[in-house]
Amino acid sequence: MSGRADVALVGGRVIDPETGLDDIRTVAFTGGEISHVTTEFVAARKVIDATGLVVAPGFIDLHSHAQSLLGARLQALDGVTTALDLEAGRWPVGPAIRAAEDQGRPINFGFSAGWAHARATIAGGEKFGPDVVLPAAPGWDQPWSDRQVTDVLELLAEELAAGAIGIGVLLGYAPGVTRAEYLNIARLATEFNVGTFTHARYLSGAEPGSSLEGVLEVIAASAATGAPMHLCHLNSTSGRQAPEVATAVTTAAAQGLHVTGEAYPYGSGATEIGAAFLSPENLPRLGIDHSAVHLLTAGRPVRDRDEYAELRATRPDTDVIVAFLDEADPDDQATLLGTLLLPDTAIASDAFTPFLDAAPVTADLWPSPPGAVTHPRSAGCFAKVFRWLVRDLGALTLPDAVRRCTLVPAQVLAASAPQARRKGRVQTGCDADLVVFDPARFGDVATYEELAASRGMVHVFVDGVPVVRDGELQLEARPGRAIVGAGAG
After folding, report:
1. Whole-structure pTM value
2. What is the CA radius of gyration of the chain?
3. Same domain membership, residue 458 and residue 343
4. Are residues 19 and 132 in the same domain?
5. Is 482 inside any structural domain?
6. Phi then psi for 409, rounded to 5 degrees?
7. Angstrom distance (rounded) from CA 226 to CA 256
8. What are phi and psi of 331, to 5 degrees?
9. DSSP letters spanning 219-249
């Protein structure tokens, strides 16, 4: 490509995980496309000195429910340039995409076809807005007749044709549905040449109904249909069966099955208190009791068994943080690392939009308003990987951490979303979704008590547009584009 580039990043440590490049280079881009990765001089309208900094592909988050302007801004400062809700998905996908486009986003976005939402639509004619993650229609999570299942599959097929990135399957919230239905979902994914993104059935360390059993079901569906099957948040759904799950996933992949996984670096998860796997009788099977369940907006643990039962009965949509593992405990930390450090595990946040006064913040706000709360993974997931796993523990090299945040998720998406083939890489002709960060400072700040943006991210470019410049968000920059599925016309 001849002529002057728009921007040249000069003198940085450039990491391209696909080619193995890890050296000082100049990276230049024009518009939204990388034009040079070179040791030579590049004429550019703007030159940025990246000496002492890392230049890497923008991070790709496969699992972000934080599909709001505030959520996207927090993730941009965490290095995310593409944030997709693929586990729960949205319904219908078209209006969700248009709502994001109308408000504008600093980072790229996209959605799977939400299986749970399709079921809820049939169960109760439930109408969904762009911010609805979990459905509430009575009966959506029960076993259904063959005719009803066929209706669900037809709705999913329509969404795949409309731009959905694969099929999101909240199986863990509906453990009573038939295995035949799940197998048919995988067959549908194969027909459209897209993947499924599954919250596996069950969450328990005891048989029957164990975490291992749930993961083996996903592996079996891939073996039976050939569909790419992605396991969401292995760290939380594996529980204390992480070693057995890790062996199963690794062996399946080694045998050529299209089975992939993701994890986030926290011992606590977040969900709604009415989730099936949080039933009082299942808590002992998780190795916890009600005191491990904290009310997100109240900022305290559940008081007692009576309050726990009352909230599940009367306010099942109450958002909670669940302490599955204690990161300070050596055994629990080893369990958590067992899924995070699997060879090709992607880093994915499971982020949620911050809540204020028990409602998600969807307005155009920055900074995050005082009193807003969410799981710290929503602001600091990727930065914690570099702070904790790379610098503190030395469990990952910096290039491998970059790979898990960029190329690995891009490869997971390769069949489902063709746009992903130009992301997760620093190569000529690829998208100018790039991050520039200080490897000594990039780290998480958010805690369970206080929401805060990550630090150390110096520049973030999305489609060649700076959304973070010199560590500061550019509030008017909204270059984010919709990532659409392979089935879109």
Report:
1. 0.97
2. 21
3. no
4. no
5. no
6. -65, -35
7. 10
8. -70, -45
9. HHHHHHH---EEE--HHHHSGGGHHHHHHHH
